[in-house]
Amino acid sequence: MSVWDDVVGQDKVVADLEAAARSARALAERRQERAGASDAADGASTGTAAMSHAWLITGPPGSGRSNAARAFAAALQCTGDVPGCGQCKPCRDVMSGTHPDVVRLATERLIITMEEVKDLIDQAQRRPWTGRWRVILVEDADRMAERTTNVLLKSIEEPPPQTVWLLCTPSADDVLPTIRSRCRLITLRVPPAQAVADLLVRRDGADPELAERAARASQSHIGLARHLAVDPGAWERRRRLLLAPISLRSVGDAVLAAAELVENAETEAAQATAERDARERTELLRALGMEGDAKVPPSLRAQVRQLEEDQKRRAKRARTDVLDRAMIDLLSFYRDVLAAQLGSDVERVNIDLAEAVDQVARATGPEQSLARIAAIEECRARLRTNASALLAVESLMVQLRPQA
Q: Average pLDDT of 386-401?
């Protein structure tokens, strides 16, 4: 078992990253032998072309960008015979998130803040504690504002010799050209559905038939496929969501359907974060010397308030993610409708809803399907901003009505 096992359907990417890890190991060994600062700097700039001090790892949602970046970080720290062996302690520590020389930022907010980026820059300047490299892994790098990205630019352009930056974004266009030009680009593709199904069976113990069905319904989105494969109620919720627009008869119906969708998203997000929120509050109070329901003294309320604000932002991000997952499901439905209208022989995503797909395809035209797909994409874009989630979903449902 290696660190690359969860990077499914990305053979070329794995080959490129393995080659880079081998090059990095050779470079680190030469640096250690020479033990000279000037030699180390020269090695960093003139080493094998396969290695770079900054990487931009891109790919569509669900393609496994974060898995690939984490596996590469493990391969850079690996001490086994082959980089990325998955058996040595550095590999296990990186994959479990406990390696001291791998700093990972995965924001739970809608944006990555300036303070978080400044902390990363400070971390990047430090020498490795135990490993060969200091690895800074930034998931969702596209969530940085332009001025925040500009602060990061110099550190990526001229990092210390033993620092490696890994930035993950859906597309290379999601970061500034100045950042893009200083990184080596790695592009992941949508993995084959069968590869995703095999991963669910191997990693999560899912039933093979259910795993294959989930992989197809999620359009090979690894995270969504896992959600469908392990959550018993996910299929029924998905079915109700996809059939809801067909039954809308008025604007009032659309408003009610939108309210239900947003309420369900908030409930699911709350269930996902409630246990963690409670644990964090208990740990903070214990660290402040309080237990149970003891009243927080005025001098300590600011710290508790800060935790509550962070938890609210995390809950909002969780709700946005749930709603975005619903939008992706709706897109798959109208994609099937459009394919039926155009007589395309592409394989359908929603096989279990074939009758509903055919019904909508007969009752509408391709122009309407394209308009609905555009409306869903517009709603997704609004949900990623500070716009009201309820108003965005209400607008969408009005446009999805059969008579719209």
A: 92
Angstrom distances, CA of residue 48 to CA of 22, 26, 58, 80: 10, 9, 22, 21
Residue burial 230-258, b: 16+ Cβ < 10 Å; e: rest? eeeebbeebeebbebbeebeeeebbbebb
What is the enclosing helix (H) or strand (E) of 187?
A: strand 184-187
**Partners of 165 in the β-ladder:** 54, 136
Phi/psi of residue 384, nearest 5 degrees: -85, 0
C-alpha 175/C-alpha 140 separation (Å) is 10
Give me the half-sphere count of Cα atoms (radius 13 Å) on the Cβ side of residue 140: 17
CA 253, distance to chain mean position in Å, is: 33
Whether 375 contacts 400, CB under 8 Å: yes
How far the first Cα of the chain sits from its last, in Å, is 53
pLDDT in tens, 20-77: 999 999 988 888 777 654 443 443 433 334 789 999 999 988 888 999 999 999 999 9
227 vs 207: CA distance, rounded Å? 13
- Write the DSSP string, 111-172: SB-HHHHHHHHHHHTSPPSSSS-EEEEETTGGGB-HHHHHHHHHHHHS--TTEEEEEEES-G
Helix axes 301-341, 251-287, angle to 10 degrees: 150
Rounded to whole angstroms, what are the CA distances from 21 to 214, 281, 379?
Answer: 33, 40, 41
Q: Which two tokens stand for residue 247?
A: 């039954």
Q: Which two tokens stand for residue 3?
A: 């660190």
Q: What is the rounded distance in angstroms from the CA atom of residue 228 to the CA atom of residue 234?
A: 6
Which pTM does this prediction carry? Answer: 0.76
Q: How far apart are CA 167 and CA 56, in angstroms?
A: 5
**DSSP assignment string, 31-73:** HHHH--HHHHHHHHHHS-TT--SEEEEE-STTS-HHHHHHHHH
